[in-house]
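Project outcomes to date are best conveyed with an example. Our students and postdoctoral researchers have been running inverse folding experiments weekly, and each run begins with a structure described purely in tokens. The record below, which covers 349 residues, was selected by the lab manager from last quarter's runs and is presented without edits.
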């Protein structure tokens, strides 16, 4: 990384030359809430072996006073790719302060592919209370089998053909989503990442790297058992095994057998093809009961998770002192998540 473009500092150089209060290994510089929260997050990232560039981004966010950090301004759930906000509304019904984030609400400030939108998401994750929750549902269109003829993704080639725009964007979107979830996990948040069953996202190298950071488990559900018009088999990836309790809130299936998610047809050359069915788009929003069920599962385990989270934070603060920063992983994350523009934006505005 030291051989970058003239005038451009390597990540390691940036960290080495940063003021003491920006470094993950900085000594205690005071007892303000802002400083404590920064140290909790940096310690958590270091213990989970997150790439050092994530710690740098977090440090730069905390150094920027336009990002507010106050004990009265924390949140208890952050839902990205929120759409109709089913999960956020479920959290609110459980009397928790929740934030929804989606490109539909703001195509710049809530777009993970822009520097502003990505930093906004990182900031929201950094505001999460210890032991709170976060859900993400990265766009799956380039990872599902319907698009594999174009994306060229497969189990052996999970990154696909990045010369195709929506494939490159899909990879970048996934990597940035995982970084946001790392920040949430650093304060022991209960995170969930949702994908339709069969998505190749779990085969992506960065997904696998993220999954190893916190022993991620996979839970299978059918959205039809939560009020969806089709069965829609779905995978929920989580850092908490308690995610299995969502099965306790299943209801008799409401799925209509005539609902068509995919259609098969023969093209002009006599080749069998597959395309999205008439009901595919409406299946993309979570049914309201799914959001309620997920929130109720969190409520069931809330006290236990908060107790464990506080112990984890104390452990991380001690353990981080003897764990080196993970600089080796940073180069590939900078490239695949396209973080250079983000670092430049933080540096120069």
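After processing, the design step wrote out the following sequence:
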């Amino acid at each position: 990384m030291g051989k970058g473009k003239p005038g451009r500092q390597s990540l390691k150089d940036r960290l080495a030359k940063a003021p003491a209060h920006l470094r993950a290994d900085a000594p205690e510089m005071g007892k303000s809430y802002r400083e404590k929260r920064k140290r909790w997050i940096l310690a958590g990232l270091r213990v989970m072996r997150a790439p050092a560039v994530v710690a740098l981004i977090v440090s730069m966010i905390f150094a920027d006073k336009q990002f507010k950090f106050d004990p009265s301004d924390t949140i208890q759930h952050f839902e990205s790719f929120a759409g109709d906000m089913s999960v956020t509304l479920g959290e609110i019904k459980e009397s928790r302060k929740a934030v929804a984030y989606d490109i539909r609400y703001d195509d710049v400030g809530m777009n993970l592919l822009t520097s502003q939108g990505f930093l906004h998401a990182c900031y929201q994750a950094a505001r999460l209370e210890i032991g709170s929750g976060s859900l993400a549902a990265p766009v799956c269109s380039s990872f599902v089998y319907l698009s594999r003829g174009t994306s060229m993704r497969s189990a052996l080639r999970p990154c696909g053909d990045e010369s195709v725009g929506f494939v490159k964007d899909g990879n970048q979107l996934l990597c940035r989503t995982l970084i946001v979830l790392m920040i949430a996990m650093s304060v022991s948040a209960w995170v969930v990442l949702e994908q339709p069953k069969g998505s190749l996202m779990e085969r992506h190298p960065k997904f696998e790297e993220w999954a190893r950071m916190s022993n991620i488990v996979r839970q299978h559900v059918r959205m039809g058992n939560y009020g969806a018009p089709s069965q829609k088999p779905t995978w929920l990836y989580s850092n908490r095994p308690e995610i299995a309790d969502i099965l306790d809130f299943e209801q008799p299936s409401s799925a209509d057998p005539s609902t068509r998610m995919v259609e098969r047809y023969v093209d002009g050359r006599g080749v069998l093809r597959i395309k999205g069915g008439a009901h595919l788009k409406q299946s993309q929003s979570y049914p309201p009961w799914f959001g309620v069920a997920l929130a109720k599962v969190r409520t069931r385990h809330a006290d236990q998770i908060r107790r464990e989270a506080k112990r984890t934070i104390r452990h991380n603060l001690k353990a981080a002192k003897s764990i080196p920063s993970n600089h080796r992983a940073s180069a590939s994350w900078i490239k695949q998540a396209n973080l250079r523009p983000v670092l430049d934006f933080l540096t120069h505005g």
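Residues 46-348 form one domain. The mean pLDDT is 90. The training component of this project remains on track.
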